[in-house]
Amino acid sequence: MKTPILAAAFALAVTPAFASDLKICVEGAYPPFSETTPSGDLVGFDIDIANALCGEIGANCEMVQTEWDGIIPALTEGKCDAIIASMSITEERKQKIDFTAKYYQTPAKFIAAKGAKISDTAEGLKGKIVGVQRGTIHQDFMEGEFPEVELKLYGTQDEAYLDLQSGRVDAVMADSIAMDDGFLKTENGAGFAFFGGDYSIPKYHGDGAGIGVRKEDKVLSYALSAAIGAIRESGEYDKLAAEYFEINIYGE
To answer: Exposed (0-12), middle (13-18) or buried (19+): which is 117, by Cβ within 10 Å?
Structure first.
């Protein structure tokens, strides 16, 4: 049974305020949240969440694979109607687009080769090269907290992993769950491990991952936020999350 707030949101959702056919920008290069299979299919937690939310608001959704660097411009230019791509809700991004409520929140962390003499301090990272995905909260964090560390920027997270394996970078900073499930638990990540603490600093890491929408699309934003609440209330969210994760990724 829907609460009055949810019912109001769903009443709005079926009005002409937004189209019943929506295009959703996804990355397709960020396992286990979003990846592309050898046959070209898009799979992952973000994709499942997108489909679940589209079902809740009664929309027919098309996933539009978009490179991370161009994903906000794709939204603002009308190439898609929403971004579901593990995008953290930050003040900087809110200058350009709006966000729904969060749909998960996990900390960032460093990884390096097992046994590497490296720590997450200015002294421990001195002289090291750290890889991060370009245009992410992790780039902002490294530039703000470790300005003396040499950064190497990548278009995708997988590119950073490849350079870590080849020794071209000493460490990688990214979302802890994405690295654990998408790299450390794979054959390629067998020789690597986390080091240092968890990082979740609102100044850099925002308020969790939300769905990006254009500022003028208030009704769509509200309906998607209500839909996140609805799938959590129904248990569908936990069922989807359990297919990928062994811990609660929604956060507090």
So the answer is: exposed
Confidence of residue 20 (pLDDT cuts 50, 70, 90): confident
Which residues make beta-bridge pairs with 152?
A: 131
| pLDDT classification of 2: cutoffs 50, 70, 90 | very low
String of DSSP letters for 5-57: HHHHHHHHHTSTTS-SEEEEEE-SEETTTEEE-TTS-EESHHHHHHHHHHHHH
pLDDT at residue 252 in the model: 77
Residue 192 pairs in a beta bridge with 113
Contact 96/216 with Cβ under 8 angstroms?
Answer: no
CA 216/CA 211 separation, integer angstroms: 14
Domains observed in the chain: 4-105+207-242 (3.40.190.10), 108-204 (3.40.190.10)
Q: Characterize 156-172 residue by residue with b for buried, 16 or more Cβ atoms within 10 angstroms of its Cβ, and e for exposed.
A: bbbbbbebbeeeebbbb
Cα 199 to Cα 105: distance, rounded to the nearest angstrom: 11
**3-state secondary structure at position 204:** helix
Rounded CA gap, 208 and 200, in Å? 9
For the entire predicted model, the pTM comes to 0.87
pLDDT digits (tens, 9 = 90+) for 62-84: 999 999 999 999 999 999 999 99
Quote the Cα angle for 212-33-196, to 5°. 100
Amino acid at 237: Y
